[in-house]
Amino acid sequence: LKQVFNKDKTFRPRKRFEPGTQRFELYKKAQASLKSGLDLKAVVQLPPGESINDWIAVHVVDFFNRINLIYGTMSEYCTEKSCPIMSGGLKYEYRWQDENKYKKPTKLSAPKYMCMLMDWIEMLINNEDIFPTRIGECALVLC
Question: Kinase among the record's keywords (predicted)?
């Protein structure tokens, strides 16, 4: 378990919402609703008077944090040697492609693929044009 929290490994620190911001208040509402019961329809419902874009952004970041924690706990068991291919069982193989280094779909080991994926998602989450953090602003992709 000690290696899970080693910053040199694939585990990333949680993304946090700045206290006092609208997103922080939405995050608190989301957390409270998740602990309120098992009515999933009510849990994901947009609170009255809130922006749908902010509500979705809060849940995207929370989902990233949860997936990152799960991946961090299992990453020591999936190494370059033990997981040479990123696959979804025998039927599916995932290949990496991006705009920089991997111009064509490329076979990567599962750890390398996951590292690239988590870096890419983190870059998107940190992009103010996609996930603005200031109140009253909307993302370029949504305006």
Answer: yes
pTM of the model: 0.65
Q: What is the DSSP letter of 80?
A: T
Which tens digits make up the pLDDT trace of 57-100? Answer: 888 888 898 888 888 888 888 899 999 999 998 899 999 999 99
**Residue list for the binding site:** 78, 83
* Count of residues making up the chain: 143
Give the chain's radius of gyration (CA, Å): 18
* Domain 22-126 architecture: Up-down Bundle (1.20)
List, as residue ranges, the binding site for Zn(2+). 78, 83
Which contacts qualify for 92-97: CB closer than 8 Å, 24 or more apart? none
Domain ranges of the chain: 22-126
